[in-house]
Design goal:
Length: 113
């Protein structure tokens, strides 16, 4: 969502210019401001909790993975989950609208019922 990076900066206290100022982000070599990784991870966690853990965030044990490229505010993302041999784990990746992976080797671990 456009503007989400500014809202997240305000509530988190992370006002790094690459998240808050288009001019300075471009001076740093980025096309514009980018989303905070922690904000994106929270969004991924929310989506996975809804789908895999019955909307119960108390079941979350851990989430992790690797950021592979910046995400621009307002950019559409697709999260794809993959079954694992562990009934309490879900592997996942996230891609942008161009099909480029922005988060790889994701693992969402939750307390299975």
């Amino acid at each position: 969502m456009e503007g989400q990076q500014l809202k997240y900066a305000a509530v988190s206290g992370d006002n790094n210019f690459i998240h808050t100022n288009n001019f300075l982000a471009r001076m740093a070599g980025l096309p514009r401001t980018i989303m905070h990784g922690a904000c994106l991870l929270a969004m991924y966690c929310t989506a996975l909790t809804r789908k895999a853990a019955g909307k119960d965030n108390r079941r979350l044990k851990s989430i992790g993975g690797r950021f592979t490229r910046p995400v621009m505010p307002g950019q559409s993302l697709t999260l794809t989950g993959y079954e694992t041999t562990d009934p309490g784990a879900l592997a996942f990746d996230v891609a942008n609208s161009a099909g480029k992976t922005v988060f790889a080797d994701g693992m969402f671990v939750f307390r299975a019922l």
